[in-house]
């Protein structure tokens, strides 16, 4: 099974914490769309099995004009067989959820929205320079359901400076009350050279302590478990049977084709390639039929380490029984060398290692200790 990821590198405004590849200059949108269509057409022979999922990420895909989004779907339909596609996700922002817009997305075949709510509190949204209001955060899911979307996931952020634990609890409870089948929650990371990192360096904001962040994460796990969510990946929670298909395939090492500036692709074996992270350069390269691509061939050990890193963040864990004998021995050596306390944090049965959810706060440390050098 294959997935297609399409990167839409435009946003209305820059969120203060963001270091993704995007531009707030919409003038390039039409030109870049024709470059995306050219890339889609040029890569139609890369799929060797059925196309299963399509994911529009960004950036803010919901900012695309209807004309441009239609052109991308026309290119997709002309280049790939979409008849077996089970999930087409579009990342959307709450301020883009007008009734007419939602109806249009549905008419194209988009059947899942990943909505960047982040917080229901106006002060948090202002602090993060989000483009939407608290009222829009509250209304967007209701509007999407009214338009007929059944697969909805919402993103929340914890670790927000100045937000109390009680406010975080209120955010989680509001999210639960919206009755979506999936919730993703990410810790606010302070990336270098972002507006947020400048504010913290200047002392205008104080970064949350590790203890506060841990308390927020544990509260999240507790409340979502009580609401019937399965915590299937460290940042992802789904009602039974509602895990994200595209992301789950990505974590399990499936092949995907990445379209658009900065998008990565993986052949499912050992070749990774990525497009240039510059809208103008990408657009020019595609129009000249001379893609600006870099690639690398991953060694057996690098692939092993990637699988270890992504799968130890999942509930299923990492089954290493089909790895080469040499890598199995090396991993088991690292497992034996874990400290007694770290060793107690993992469970290994029939060559399947997993970290129980109660120990996920220590995942990064365990991965660092197990990774092969
Ligand atoms: S909407 Fe998303 S991609 Fe755009 S600036 Fe905000 S966090 Fe970054």
Structure report:
With 373 residues, this protein is α/β, with parallel strands linked by helices. The chain folds into two domains: 2-250, Alpha-Beta Barrel (TIM Barrel); 300-370. It contains 14 helices and 15 strands. Helix 1 (29-42) packs parallel to helix 2 (66-79).
- The CATH architecture category of the largest domain equals Alpha-Beta Barrel
> What radius of gyration results from the CA coordinates?
21 Å
The SSE order reads EHEHEHEHHEHEHHEEHEEEHEHEHHEEH
Whole-number mean pLDDT: 96
User: Which range does the strand content fall in?
Assistant: 15-25%
Shape call: globular
Q: How do the strands of the widest beta sheet line up side by side?
A: 7-8-6-5-4-3-2-1-9
Number of helices: 14
How much helicity do the residues have? 25-40%
Number of strands: 15
Q: What is the CATH topology descriptor of the largest domain?
A: TIM Barrel
Keywords:
alpha/beta, binds iron/sulfur cluster, 2 domains, TIM Barrel, 3-stranded antiparallel sheet, 20% strand, 9-stranded mixed sheet, 373 residues, 15 strands
Concise structural overview:
It contains 14 helices and 15 strands.
What is the secondary structure topology, with strand pairs?
Blueprint: E1 2-8, H1 29-42, E2 51-58, H2 66-79, E3 87-92, H3 99-108, E4 112-118, H4 122-127, H5 134-146, E5 151-158, H6 165-177, E6 182-187, H7 195-202, H8 210-226, E7 230-233, E8 236-238, H9 245-251, E9 255-259, E10 264-266, E11 271-275, H10 279-287, E12 293-297, H11 300-311, E13 318-319, H12 325-336, H13 340-343, E14 347-349, E15 352-354, H14 363-370
Parallel strand pairs: 1-2, 1-9, 2-3, 3-4, 4-5, 5-6
Antiparallel strand pairs: 6-8, 7-8, 10-11, 11-12, 13-15, 14-15
Helix pairs in contact: 1-2, 1-10, 6-8
Iron/sulfur cluster binds next to loops.
